[in-house]
# Entry
Amino acid sequence: MTVSDSNVSAQPDPGGHFGPYGGRFSPEALVAALDELDAAYTAAKTDPAFQAELAALLTDYTGRPSPLTEAPRFGEHAGGARILLKREDLNHTGSHKINNVLGQALLTRKMGKTRVIAETGAGQHGVATATACALFGLDCVVYMGEEDTRRQALNVARMNMLGAEVIPVTIGSRTLKDAVNEAFRDWVTNVENTHYILGTVAGPHPFPVMVRDLHRIIGVEAREQVRERTGRLPDVVAACVGGGSNAIGIFHAFIPDEGVRLYGFEAGGDGVTTGRTAASITAGSPGVFQGTRTYVLQDDDGQTLPSHSISAGLDYPAVGPEHAWLSDSGRATYQAVDDADAMDAFRLLCRTEGIIPAIESAHALAGALRLGRELGPDGVILVNLSGRGDKDVDTAARYFGLMGEGA
Amino acid sequence: MSRLSEVLAAAKAEGRAALVGYLPAGFPSVSGSIAAMTAMVRGGCDVIEVGLPYSDPTMDGPTIQKAADAALEGGTRTKDVLHVVEGVAATGAATLVMTYWNPVERYGVDRFADDLAKAGGAGLITPDLIPEEAGPWLRASDATGLDRVFLVAPSSTDARLALTADASRGFVYAASLMGVTGTREQVGAHAEGLVARTRAVTELPVCVGLGVFNGRQAAQVARYADGVIVGSAFCDPLLKAPDEATGLAAVEALAAELAAGVRDR
# Structure
């Protein structure tokens, strides 16, 4: 499997537009770097040496292919539907994020750059980037909202351990979007020697399409694994959506399969009508944000609204442009899952299957419970278990009131 | 000829560079920002950039971020920005709006262009809009006769300089360095070369921004550019001033120092 392997029906135009979404709303100062990246990536897609190196890393370092685990005890709570978990949580560094990062780290080296910057919310992308930089001997700076450094202190320690510098962002809402702003400011200043490893399918072209292609392997593997296991394609593919990288990764290989329904579950937070939400497609409107046109949580003047989710990784007021397009075109369906439902699903997977999911991924699990009850025992649901929940144990223990128990 | 082109031509006829000053609308308040920009005109600014404060200013350093945040916290709305334009244009200065793209798109590109023209505004500077994405704005500015200032940077290829200058009207904004807004001890070493490369592809005036904060630097830049753009340095005294009167006096004095600079080349 390589990133050039294509059975792709949804491609943007050469400017990176997915219908009315996407594009490049970027300062002129970054256009040269974006063009350089686009050229390097386009060349890499057909460069056998690059592809071989990436494939070897994905196998020997990441541990791909990631397994498919059936979750029958969890499935009993989902109307008896067959629930199949794509185990991206078992990748090295604990989430799907490493797929994209290794590809972009190879491109960084290819472009002759020596320094990498990244943004992170939950810390999973920051940890993956710090890991790749350690592996390739690149300098690494990770921007992280101050609020998130507190919520995800363990991941800050991991990044430091790996030799990365973590810079807390103390402006704006002090979460993921502000970390992205700071990363762009760093990039425009240091672009000569620095590559920005953007962690999701957002930002200016070519990031949305490049990051998607680097994650496409998730769906390509899962499609084969589900067929081997069940003799057919799944009825539904479910994934959580913040920026949407794990979701597009598992969706993309299924886009041509008309009988397969694609469901993205956004973070509803306290509820989409409360104003404390991160569900950009459900509660937002089209706008231009951080380099791309997409759905954004914004007020009547186009000012970005603060987002809220119990999950730091989904706490982002926009979504990747291809998801905006998939939603408008009807190919994929996006629904909100509130904090409470996500946490119930989190605990249920722990108790029924012995797997602690990331709170991000728990949104997809909650969605699977909902869909399974519609489909019943004949249903087959593929869920992207995009990350593991070790980083979330503190948040979950507080949420369930377990702190101090038995101490 | 637009008001902006007239002002730039008049400066050129005087054998000097034009002085372009920036402040966010609504900072320190809506009326306070009109007073401050009026003080900048009194001190010698030829052109005023009225900033539309935005929640996610990825091209701005800490000073302008702070000023724009204060404006938003004070409740500044897009309609207030147009009101400020009206107040500043009444001074006779050529008045541009400097804005990230989303607020314009949200207001409606055609509606924004119409209301800006009605307020006496000369056009827009768009730091996160490149000509390839600017279709609706190119049409709206043609329909209303507004100027459209796009940016070029030291990293721009010659082909992109030509494309960007072709789409521009009024002047071309040359970013003096690779980075965000903010004062610098040295104006970027690449600025002069960038201006020369831009002049090779356009007849439009080329104004230089990013980093300039005193008369000495203004004089340096005025030797090779048609205009000198100053932003963060005008926000700074207003952020630090104990009261509005002190702030206004400091802003006017800075404008006077810079105005002397652009004449001393």
The radius of gyration of chain B is 17 Å. The interface with chain A takes residues 54-59, 61-62, 65, 69, 72, 77-78, 101-107, 127-130, 132-133, 150-157, 160, 164, 175, 178-180 of chain B (CB under 8 Å). Chain B has one domain: 3-263. Chain B has a mean pLDDT of 96.
